[in-house]
Amino acid sequence: MALPEQVEVVNVGLPMFAEAIREQGGSVQQVDWRIPAGGDPAAVRLLTALSGRHAAVVDEANREVVRRLDEGVPQLVAMGRVADVPGYAGRTLLHCGPPVDYADACDPLRRSMRAAVVAEGWAADVAEADGLLARGDVALDAANHHDTVVPMASAVGPSQPVFVVENREGGTRAYAPVNQGPGEVAWFGRETDAAIARLRFLADVAGDALAHVLAGSGPIDLLALAAQGITMGDDLHMRTQAATNLFTRAVLSHLASLPDAARGPFASYLAGNHLFFLNAAMAAAKSLQLWAEQVPNSSIVTTMSRNGTTFGIKLAGSPDWHLCEAPPVGDALYYSGFGPETAARDIGDSAVLELTGMGGPAAGGSAAVAAFLGGTMAGAAEATHSFRAICAGTSSRFTLPPLEFEGTPLGIDVRKVVETGITPKVTTGILHATAGTGQVGAGVATAPPECFGAALRALGERLGS
To answer: By C-alpha distance, which of 54, 48, 36 is closest to 462?
Structure first.
């Protein structure tokens, strides 16, 4: 029997074999295959059960979770205070990430806590605030435990104004503080007089100004603005410039009617804060996650948060945290004079955006984010595609023009994370680890795999595997 003169090859696994065939002018299709779960027998058995005899139950739950994430319409309906959020009591600070004691908190978060204590009037200066916190005279709790999300190294007290975002379809409300802006601010790990003054400005001026604006504008569909922002180059995590501008335009006539004493200061604050929309988008995402987490038996992540010390996730249908060490931020661009040796670990609740089709899943549409991903749009597209490999659905709300208007990946499925070994990549800022100098760069944090494995095991136990 004569051998064929031409061979078309499908290569499964190691790409070096495909590259060798191409170098010889052959036709080859590379299939990116890897051993499921890295070959761990226990994980493979569990995946077999959750994608086999339990698949119908889990897949049905996941479809409902994705539907809720995709179809909910979060609206900014009011302004409130941290003191008003569910379960808030006493002299307490709400902080980013999973629960953490003051002694175990990273340096930027401790500085933010001290600034918040002074801004609340509980201490005369940061030295006195440090003593109060070290003795436990000021309580600490995760903002997530109060239907609230806070970005970067935020710690907020009862006077801070919050966005009140309502998801009427799901009957859920979520909250986020008003963004402090760039520069010398507490959420970047600063405890200077200027950082404390900014917190007091938000409490005394910005909250009331936004309440006045909302009284005139009525409810604002936040994710409609976010969707427009994404088509204009935002990822809604690292870059929120377009959505901030769209929000400002939507309320401009009501800003003009602010009382004289507030109009100028608030306009100056808003004009200098390209990150303003970030916190509002986070609250919108959280309102959808609160609805999604009511669905039992799902393998989709509905909380993903970091405090600079630990990284934690929760699955829909379960209140349990699955924790591991917070990762460093890689693929980074640093300000002059700074580098990895000066960088704090990944921090903030803003990864709630990645769970809702924004941030990393939208990287493929953002030239600004591409700068951190090899400097090309192909690198940004690859970030989106890596999410697609671990997500259960696709957003009908957020579309990416550079990728032929395909929807962003939606609903991180812990089964797919463990099977492929691909974990979410979170676009984020970088804070100085020890010096209190604030933001020193930005980059991409890769979520650690251990907590996803723990979440998978917990789901298996709940389903009897």
So the answer is: 54
